[in-house]
Amino acid sequence: xxxPIDATRHIGIxxxxxxxxxxxxxxxxxxxxxxxxxxxxxWAVTTFSADGGPVTCEKTLVIxxxxxxxxxxxxxxxxxPGGDGTRGxxxxxxxxxxxxxxxxxxxLMTSVCTGATVFAxxxxxxxxxxxxxxxxxxxLTRLDETIIVKPGQQYVDDGDIITAAGIxxxxxxxxxxxxxxxxxxxxxxxxxxxxxxxxxASDGEYVPAAxxxxxxxxxxxxxxxxxx
Amino acid sequence: xxxPIDATRHIGIxxxxxxxxxxxxxxxxxxxxxxxxxxxxxWAVTTFSADGGPVTCEKTLVIxxxxxxxxxxxxxxxxxPGGDGTRGxxxxxxxxxxxxxxxxxxxLMTSVCTGATVFAxxxxxxxxxxxxxxxxxxxLTRLDETIIVKPGQQYVDDGDIITAAGIxxxxxxxxxxxxxxxxxxxxxxxxxxxxxxxxxASDGEYVPAAxxxxxxxxxxxxxxxxxx
Lengths: 228, 228
Description:
Two copies of one chain form a homodimer.
Chain A: E1 9-14, H1 21-37, E2 43-49, E3 55-56, E4 62-64, E5 67-68, E6 77-80, H2 86-89, H3 93-105, E7 108-111, H4 115-121, E8 129-130, H5 137-143, E9 148-149, E10 155-157, E11 161-164, H6 169-181, H7 184-193, H8 210-213
Parallel strand pairs in A: 1-2, 1-6, 2-5, 6-7, 7-11, 8-9
Antiparallel strand pairs in A: 3-4, 10-11
Helix pairs in contact in A: 1-6, 6-7
């Protein structure tokens, strides 16, 4: 069954100055890869900033979003990244009020890294389990002592709110969301598509070229004097 | 020991139209997190496009790089992402020639995803082990039959060239490179910093809020009628 175009459901990722790059671009890649390869699922993903202008991320990368808050389509899933830019947001009454308004309309509110601290400041995590960057777990409790902090999980799914741990945990959360919105099979297809099979921490040792070739079809020892 | 400013070593990530977003931003996050938190190591990372202008990535994200090829500092490590934009590069004689010139000056040439196909077209992978996106492994051989294709690895380290598999494998490669350039301990610190502890494929099942709270300090059953 093909989903009619006007039935497209939208995932929106907020971007802002001093946002942590991978907090946004990790989930972006997961959702966008899914939307591109499985258009019949009927989902789209977009990015937006408060005024629609470009943002300078925490590590200095500049991203030009697709929309402003005024032009972004009605969202089915909202994602709030983290980063140093969240510090000011904790006391930005208009941003917190805007978040509370989103809560009234958006079925699934999600955060990555210290994005959860902004949710906490807006009161969205009251009496709920949640996580954030491991260096900000205490801050969650300071912002709202009713939050049940869950260390040691890549993300915490509380139904209509999902919070992820630090930075790359947003990728795990996004794959989980794809699974929730569709099927485990689809989530695995996206995981395979982006080849998310991370390896254990490497010591970065250089394995001489001859070693990985040994036993391979076409393998032959290279003479030390042979040019590459 | 503090490294003098003029001894800074540079990692450069090329960006281009139809580049796959995470191919670049995954390694960017790893390298930038490292450079920010361990400035004494003396490394910096930057991005650049051919003309210094913004690029529109494969999934439609727009990124404004820091430099053009004319202004980027001399590189110690070069990273070539993949994506649909590499297709045209395979027959872009000036880009391939530029890559061969980089090879003469840059000690460590690296690629993510189909970035390896461009290296292959430039002749950089002749008689070497390499990998690429799993859907492009055959293409590597078609471009240069002497390449020893290595499926099933997140990256292939051949000393002065490292090629990564698809999309998110660039994160694994970048952590490996940090380890090679410094120590295993440093690589693990960066891995911990970005909380790269990916979970197995999830079925996205919603675990009711009460479950994760059970047994936690402060846990209490929420009445079904209690507002959140």
